[in-house]
Write a structure and sequence with these properties.
Elements lengths: L1 H27 L5 E5 L42 H8 L8 H5 L37 H19 L1 H10 L1 E5 L2 H8 L2 H6 L2 H22 L3 E5 L8 H4 L9 H24 L4 E5 L1 H10 L8 E5 L1 E2 L14 E2 L6 E3 L7 H13 L5 E3 L2 H6 L1
Parallel strand pairs: 1-2, 2-3, 3-4, 5-8
Antiparallel strand pairs: 4-9, 6-7
Length: 367
């Protein structure tokens, strides 16, 4: 009799615990899905499926600090900002789109429900940005893929249910650095456009793509400005003094000014839009100017590479890499370490209005 009472009590406890646990999980998930578009800063493996691409990170020593300790296609030593943002909103990392469509057996009714990543290393706002790297998925194509996914969701769930999911989901756009690098390194582009004309065209092209995403059902956008990319090891290595390339930085600032202005006007033009803009430039400048405040010791050299500042060659299997990776701002020629990605995601999600405006992501998901 006592054993039956014990079992009944235990069963009741288990049911209550299960219900409580389920509620906790549901509360922890703040949005239905996260859809990611962008470049190598948030690529989680799409370029692994591009056979001709030179912009890949599917080899050591990339991924040395990832949970599996193996390269995944992320251009860093561990997780990137897309991973950390997904964690913060209670979701798994959005899988690479090409990993799903390359194996049709992986696609089922739930494949796209918590989000997809379309981000691709080497990608730009302009279609021709990746010519030097031979192959990536430019933003235009990424949006094509996204709209295909939106249509599949509408077919699977019905138009009303799919629109509800999409309107509450986050659409993250991290792109533009490769366009700025492309302009800086191309005498042809510089002869055709002044810096101001070029960044104005970037903002205009991005606006066109954002409108397409909006028409697909998106209402909540997370958009990042371009960082102080003139301070990355590849740019410092071009200067004998190892200082930042201020010309590249000025171009980034010009674009960010145009981008924030465009977003403010764009919000007033279309119904129901909310967005969170991250001032990546100011954040990275803070890292560079006050490294100790953020736990960094070295903000100039790449952790993984060869040559001066580890920036003569990229992070290759023959490269050496540092042991104090949490103290480095940069992992390779261009990309932040996992430690820097974590701090960037922290500011994106919970940052002050100094860095994240008009809303941070925590407030954005509550709108």
């Amino acid at each position: 009799m006592a054993s039956k009472a014990f079992l009944a009590s235990y069963g009741l406890f288990f049911i209550c615990f299960f219900v409580w646990g389920t509620n906790y999980i549901l509360e922890a998930q703040m949005v239905p899905a996260v859809f990611v578009l962008g470049d190598s800063l948030v690529d989680v493996g799409n370029n692994n499926y591009l056979p001709l691409s030179l912009a890949k990170a599917d080899f050591p020593h990339n991924g040395v600090d990832f949970p599996t300790h193996k390269p995944t296609g992320r251009f860093t030593n561990g997780k990137n900002a897309a991973d950390f943002l997904a964690e913060k909103v209670g979701l798994p990392t959005s899988p690479p789109y090409l990993s799903l469509v390359s194996n049709s057996s992986k696609i089922n009714n739930a494949s796209f429900l918590t989000g997809v990543s379309f981000a691709s290393g080497g990608a730009g706002i302009f279609d021709g940005t990746d010519e030097r790297l031979r192959q990536s998925i430019p933003l235009t194509k990424q949006v094509d893929y996204l709209l295909t996914v939106c249509e599949k969701l509408k077919q699977q769930r019905g138009s009303t249910s799919a629109q509800n999911l999409l309107s509450k989901s986050l659409f993250v756009v991290v792109i533009g650095s490769n366009d700025v690098f492309g302009y800086s390194g191309s005498s042809d582009l510089r002869s055709k456009n002044t810096p101001q004309q070029y960044v104005d065209l970037m903002a205009l092209k991005l606006k066109e793509q954002l409108k397409r995403i909006y028409n697909g059902g998106a209402r909540k956008f997370v958009i990042t400005g371009i960082g102080a990319i003139g301070c990355c090891p590849s740019e410092r290595n071009k200067n004998k003094t190892e200082e930042c390339n201020e010309e590249t930085n000025r171009l980034s600032v010009k674009y960010n000014e145009g981008l924030t202005s465009m977003l403010q006007k764009w919000k007033s033009e279309l119904k129901g839009i909310s967005y969170s803009y991250l001032d990546t430039y100011s954040i990275l400048q803070n890292f560079v100017q006050k490294p100790q405040a953020y736990g960094f010791v070295d903000v100039k050299a790449a952790c993984c590479g060869l040559g001066n500042l580890n920036a003569k060659f990229g992070c290759l299997p023959i490269s050496t890499y540092c042991s104090n990776r949490k103290e480095h701002l940069f992992w390779d020629l261009y990309h932040p370490t996992e430690a820097a990605h974590r701090l960037i995601a922290d500011n994106l999600f919970d940052g002050p209005s100094q860095f994240t405006f008009p809303l941070n992501v925590r407030h954005l998901v509550a709108v």
